[in-house]
Amino acid sequence: RKEVEQDPGPFNVPEGATVAFNCTYSNSASQSFFWYRQDCRKEPKLLMSVYSSGNEDGRFTAQLNRASQYISLLIRDSKLSDSATYLCVVTNTGGFKTIFGAGTRLFVKA
Amino acid sequence: NAGVTQTPKFQVLKTGQSMTLQCAQDMNHEYMSWYRQDPGMGLRLIHYSVGAGITDQGEVPNGYNVSRSTTEDFPLRLLSAAPSQTSVYFCASSPDRVSWAQYFGPGTRLLVL
């Protein structure tokens, strides 16, 4: 079993749709959680950190459920520019071991 | 600030050749890492450094060496290139051990024939 698992997608949605990404992790000692965005042939870029209390940044909402070892990202009112691969990232004890999920590809269509 | 820079952008090697991938950051970050990204597998940690003079192995260190003589630079050396090392290599830096948010360079695409 992979340490961080994501739905491989791709997700194809129309502009304006709400889309949810899910991620599970296997190490209960994981400390920090993130969502990164990666455009085609580009480097990953930090989108959001994820906190137990949940956090929101504009159209993006991230949630963490430690009991279920589950992380989510919700994008509301999707834009064409949201088309990218979304990576779930977990940092384990000491922060030295960062595990990336394989990513979920999103296509937003006009 | 230039952020995290990597050179070269592209490289073709023959099996058995050696080379160094360069990485530099101008943000005075303590923590730096090297990852490789292969289709369908996500990024995998090769080596990391928590400060000048300190390095350690990640998930897939075999065939690679690193050194960290300064805060700014973190080169990755391929000792004897193999086709299995064909990949995209990303260098990243992180400012602190509280958030562990990472900032990535643009990557180096390596093809080993």
Structural account:
The complex is a heterodimer of chains A (110) and B (113). Chain A is an all-beta fold and 110 residues long. Helices cover 0% and strands 55% of the residues of chain A. In chain A, β7 and β8 form a beta hairpin. The N and C termini of chain A lie far apart (37 Å). The relative contact order of chain A is 0.35. The mean pLDDT of chain A is 92. Chain B is an all-beta fold. Helices cover 0% and strands 51% of the residues of chain B. Chain B is built from no helices and eleven strands. In chain B, strands 2, 4, 5, 6, 9, 10 and 11 form a seven-stranded mixed β-sheet that branches. In chain B, a hairpin with a 3-residue loop joins β4 and β5. Chain B starts with a strand and ends with a strand. The model of chain B has no long low-confidence stretch (mean pLDDT 93). Classes of the chains: A mainly beta (110), B mainly beta (113).
How many individual β-strands of chain A?
Answer: 11
Report the portion of residues of chain B in β strands.
over 45%
User: What separation lies between the terminal Cα atoms of chain A?
Assistant: 37 Å
Strand content of chain A: over 45%
Show the largest interface: A-B, 21 and 25 residues
Unreliable segments of chain B (pLDDT under 50, ≥5 consecutive)?
none
Instruction: Tell me about the largest β-sheet of chain B.
Output: 7 strands, mixed
Radius of gyration of chain B: 13 Å
Q: Tell me, briefly, the overall form of chain B.
A: globular
Structural class of chain A: mainly beta
- Mean model confidence by pLDDT of chain B: 93
